């Protein structure tokens, strides 16, 4: 039973991995359109993706200003969509920082269109997206602050991912108190409980960091 729940939570978390790689994004960055004039959008962004991002940032700004500030403080920030990452099973990755000092978060799927988003309500998709965004923003903030700068073994991998996953869970707990969460309160509270359990499970860390244990 516990294993079943943990498996579900891992699926909910998605394959969110943090990569700390010093590299330069390809020159595909587009200055416009950007969300709330603060974040550069790059890659395969569609109009629908831009609207989705803007809507969620506006919800944070208007209802959860502390979390909005948490994201905005990760600037300078580029958010990209690269379906080749999705094809590799990566829901999102964070890189900090490029040659211009920008943190880069790359999503592997158009927003609301990952395999985990299928059959979810729009509210559930939005909560999942904000959770993933906060997770990746945490990696960039940590890196800039000199925390968890290397992911070279199981222990350092767990430290990095624990930081991201705890913030991901924390923002979901906040969202559960607002309109978004109220739209699917029972399922979201169940999800939050499962994810909290998963964070204390060996299976979760095997999922994220097992590759370092050979
Ligand atoms: Zn991560």
Record the SSE blueprint.
Layout lengths: L1 H12 L15 E7 L3 E5 L3 H17 L1 H8 L4 E5 L1 H5 L4 E4 L7 E5 L14 H23 L9 H22 L3 H4 L2 H15 L2 H8 L5
Parallel strand pairs: 2-3, 3-5
Antiparallel strand pairs: 1-2, 4-5
Helix pairs in contact: 1-8, 2-3, 5-6, 6-8
This protein binds zinc ion.
Classify the beta-strand content into a percent band. 5-15%
Low-confidence stretches: 14-35
DSSP summary: helix tally: 9
Number of strands: 5
Sum up the overall morphology in one term. Answer: globular
Written overview of the protein:
The structure is a single chain. This protein is α/β, with parallel strands linked by helices and 214 residues long. It has one domain. Helices cover 53% and strands 12% of the residues. The protein has a 5-stranded mixed beta sheet. It is globular and about 40 Å long. 43% of the residues are buried. Zinc ion (ZN) binds at residues 16-18, 135, 139, 161, 164.
């Amino acid at each position: 039973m516990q294993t079943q729940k943990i498996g579900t939570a891992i699926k909910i978390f998605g394959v969110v991995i943090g990569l700390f790689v010093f590299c330069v994004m390809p020159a595909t960055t587009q200055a416009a359109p950007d969300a709330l004039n603060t974040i550069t959008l790059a890659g395969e962004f569609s109009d629908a993706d831009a609207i989705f991002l803007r809507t969620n940032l506006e919800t944070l700004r208007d209802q959860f200003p502390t979390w909005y500030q948490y994201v905005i403080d990760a600037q300078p920030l580029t958010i990209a969509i690269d379906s080749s990452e999705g094809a590799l099973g990566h829901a999102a990755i964070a890189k900090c920082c490029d040659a211009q000092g920008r943190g880069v978060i790359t999503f592997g799927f158009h927003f609301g269109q990952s395999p985990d988003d299928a059959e979810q309500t729009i509210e559930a998709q939005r909560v999942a997206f904000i959770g993933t965004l906060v997770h990746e923003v945490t990696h960039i903030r940590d890196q800039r602050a000199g925390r968890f700068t290397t992911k070279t073994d199981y222990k350092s991998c767990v430290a990095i991912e624990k930081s991201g996953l705890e913030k991901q869970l924390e923002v979901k707990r906040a969202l559960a108190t607002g309109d978004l969460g109220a739209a699917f309160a029972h399922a979201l509270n169940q999800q939050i409980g499962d994810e909290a359990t998963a964070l204390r499970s060996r299976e979760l860390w095997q999922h994220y960091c097992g590759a370092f244990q050979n």
